[in-house]
């Protein structure tokens, strides 16, 4: 869980780094970026296959662990458990990792279907880039985020991403034993910051486009 | 005992592991706030015995917080509402007249109920048997400073050795994981010179045993630390994971031979 989780955090970071170009007024930068990725052809497939493997490892392990943990309890407490406080990390984040995780999984499938496997050159989404025809993914993204229900969905799901990473980041370090009592708190705080930054970075893209902050999408 | 409290107890009653149990209401009357929680149950039991009924069974031994025998979940909190305290050290002053108190056994598939509030914690013994000791004969008492131990290490080892094996960590864990117990037992040996020789074999065998017993998996929620009567930190769990990875990536020659053979 921990190793694959770190891998997925790195993926999210790179994904956001690329997506930051969506904040720019010219769509050509984002299109150039996606075209570069497409041009990697075989290498891209290798990277994508690796990514799918990491996702599957993370998801399958998570589901197995959840079922095993339910079984381990046996009879449940009549009125549930109540925290005794202190240094505990018990919160909505840590207690409902499987819920936020499954929401992210459902979103991931929808997100791939909507954009990656969404309308392409055949549907007229063509941009000219240095004289070459490439997929105008930028137009698709802008059109998607001009619809309020998409904006609401993406913003909502990104809040769950923040919730998931808030516990996930620190938890990965703890599970790998890569902590020291002295660094435990700083690592937890870094995790909160990473979760907030990643969630905010993704979350403001749909809002940026919907409210047309730069006044370029009309 | 003037001015005693009256309390409504809701207690888990179960004949044995094979039969289903259920919650039953009881009244605890004229309870002094100076009584311990177990003494309050003693009062209730005395009445039940006088009425010809079967008393509520619970574990207890030293009644001073060091043996680890007692342990029940009180209103969803292992060992009750106070931190760093066992059930026998919990006093009735923590409750008010008229309170309803829900009393249940530790809930874990690896801790089957023997009767009422008594659970079978032999799974903990089997984890220890898997390697929670030093196999060499230590002989008679060694000279105090024959083996020098840095103060920091001895403090940490002592913190880990404070574990009384009561099982509150398992009871409090939303996943019923025994990681805090196992990590404490691994840590107090791994930190000291005498324990280091067998550290790799120990951590591997104890974790394998822990998983085999049907405990859940640690998801780093930290409720174990919160419920632990000895306030053992989940830093122990991080150390256990670190020791496990060390054993996995740099196994000792004997383990390599075992794996090959």
Summarize it.
The complex is a heterodimer of chains A (218) and B (261). Chain A is mostly helical and 218 residues long. Chain A is built from 8 helices and 2 strands.
Describe this structure in words.
The complex is a heterodimer of chains A (218) and B (261). By secondary structure, chain A is mostly helical. In chain A, 70% of the residues lie in helices and 4% in strands. Chain A has helices spanning 2-19, 27-39, 42-73, 92-95, 97-116, 137-144, 148-175, 181-210; strands spanning 126-129, 132-135. Chain A has a two-stranded antiparallel ribbon with strand order 1-2. In chain A, strand 1 and strand 2 (132-135) form a beta hairpin. The longest helix of chain A is centred in the first third of the chain and has 32 residues, at 42-73. The N and C termini of chain A lie far apart (44 Å). The model of chain A has no long low-confidence stretch (mean pLDDT 94). Chain B has 261 residues and is of the alpha+beta class. Chain B has helices at 37-50, 122-129, 151-161, 168-172, 179-190, 193-196, 199-212, 223-227, 235-249, 253-260, and strands at residues 5-13, 22-31, 73-74, 77-78, 100-104, 113-115, 118-119. Chain B has a five-stranded mixed beta sheet. Chain B has a two-stranded antiparallel ribbon with strand order 6-7. In chain B, strand 3 (73-74) and strand 4 form a beta hairpin. Chain B is elongated. Chain B starts with a strand and ends with a helix. The relative contact order of chain B is 0.13. Chain A binds chain B through residues 65, 68-69, 71-90, 94-95, 97, 167, 170-171, 174-181, 184, and chain B through 10, 12, 21, 23, 73, 75-77, 81-83, 102, 104, 107-110, 172, 174-177, 214-223, 225-227, 231, 233-235, 237-245.
């Amino acid at each position: 869980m921990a190793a694959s989780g770190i891998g997925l955090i790195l993926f999210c970071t790179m994904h956001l780094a690329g997506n930051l170009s969506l904040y720019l007024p010219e769509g050509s930068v984002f299109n150039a970026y996606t075209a570069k990725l497409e041009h990697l052809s075989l290498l891209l497939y290798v990277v994508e296959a690796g990514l799918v493997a990491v996702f599957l490892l993370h998801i399958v392990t998570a589901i197995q662990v959840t079922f095993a943990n339910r079984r381990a309890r046996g009879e449940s407490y009549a009125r549930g458990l109540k925290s005794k406080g202190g240094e505990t990390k018990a919160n909505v984040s840590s207690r409902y990792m499987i819920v936020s995780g499954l929401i992210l999984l459902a979103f991931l499938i929808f997100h791939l279907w909507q954009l990656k496997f969404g309308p392409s050159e055949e549907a007229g989404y063509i941009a000219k880039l240095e004289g070459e025809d490439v997929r105008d993914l930028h137009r698709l993204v802008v059109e998607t985020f001009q619809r309020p229900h998409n904006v609401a969905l993406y913003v909502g799901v990104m809040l769950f991403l923040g919730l998931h990473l808030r516990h996930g980041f620190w938890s990965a370090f703890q599970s790998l034993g890569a902590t020291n009592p002295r660094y435990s708190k700083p690592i937890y705080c870094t995790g909160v910051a990473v979760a907030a930054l990643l969630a905010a970075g993704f979350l403001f893209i749909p809002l940026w486009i919907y409210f047309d902050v730069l006044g370029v999408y009309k | 005992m003037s001015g005693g409290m009256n309390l409504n107890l809701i207690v888990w009653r179960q004949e044995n592991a094979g039969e289903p149990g259920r919650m039953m209401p009881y009244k605890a009357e004229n309870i002094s706030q100076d009584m311990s929680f177990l003494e309050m149950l003693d009062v209730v039991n005395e009445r039940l015995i006088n009425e010809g009924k079967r008393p509520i069974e619970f574990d207890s031994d030293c009644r001073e917080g060091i043996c680890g025998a007692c342990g029940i979940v009180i209103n969803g909190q292992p060992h009750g509402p106070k931190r760093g305290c066992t059930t026998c050290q919990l006093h009735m002053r923590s409750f008010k007249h008229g309170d309803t108190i829900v009393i249940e056994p530790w809930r874990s598939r690896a801790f089957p109920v023997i009767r009422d509030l008594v659970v079978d914690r032999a799974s903990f013994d089997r984890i220890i048997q898997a390697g929670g000791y030093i196999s060499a004969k230590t002989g008679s008492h060694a000279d105090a400073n024959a083996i020098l131990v840095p103060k920091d290490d001895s403090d940490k080892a002592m913190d880990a050795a404070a574990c009384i094996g009561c099982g509150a960590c398992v009871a409090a864990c939303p996943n019923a994981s025994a990681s805090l117990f196992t990590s404490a037992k691994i840590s107090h040996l791994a930190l000291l010179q005498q324990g280091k020789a067998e550290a790799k074999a120990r951590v591997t065998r104890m974790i394998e045993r822990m998983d085999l017993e049907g405990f859940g998996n640690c998801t780093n929620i930290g409720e174990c630390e919160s419920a632990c009567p000895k306030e053992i930190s989940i830093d122990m769990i991080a150390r256990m994971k670190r020791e496990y990875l060390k054993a996995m990536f740099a196994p000792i020659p004997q383990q390599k031979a075992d794996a090959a053979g």
